[in-house]
Predict the structure.
Amino acid sequence: MHAYYSTIMASTYQSLSLDHIDGVMTVTLLGPGKGNAMGPEFWDDLPTAMDEISAMPDVRCIVFRGSGDHFSYGLDVARMLPRIGAMASGNPLAAERRRLMAQIRFMQSGFLNMHQSPKPVIAAIHGWCIGGGVNMIAAADIRLCSADARFSLREAKLAITPDIGGLQFLPHIIGQGYTRELALTARDFDATFAEKINLVNHVYDTPEALFAAAHQMARDIADLPAPAVQGAKEVLNYGVGKDIEDGLQYVAVWNSSQMQSADFGEAMQATVERRKAAFNKKSERGY
């Protein structure tokens, strides 16, 4: 049975369109700035949207994509100036610095919510993905792109340091060397280089092929038992920065509870009966 949330939620967010079909939530960036630039609406919408999506038991995978010809041009500088301009004008007052720090921390929260969400997140990138866009896709679990994708961690050209997650997430994805190269040079790079450094898992010939592949991957994930998939993400996130023994202890505790689930019993029974398992039954929801 298909479950549709887009008609209910479309009026809630100005910068995002949400479409939920049978376990897969597609979140499309809408702008309103050119190239889906990240203006005030985006920074306000994303943390709330991620909290709402993460709490939906019927959502089992999330796909982020851009509308139009690009994923995102990144920070909408012109439209964000009224919000951060006065605080970033060199005013030495401690109160202004605290306000600016609070604003940065709030902007970080949307990407952190993506990273910490129990739902697996796939980023499907086409066209330009600049600055905040790179920080955003770094918070996803899986990144895919089309051959026309172009990337840039461009903050240094704006005389700032990437401050919304990229420098924290990227080293665990592409390593320290490539992260430092991207951040220190602020150069543009293409899909071939993105695949070489493992920023993206796969490159597709066209945006249409990309979106189809992203949806199929999300569909494959959503068809698996949600507690097992979400457990894998939780254990992987927990293991960042910890030693192997700590991670092994954590997953042992995690799996000792999962093996009591109806999905695990169904998997064992289906294996014995040589049939396809039926996961994510209504009685199992609530995770």
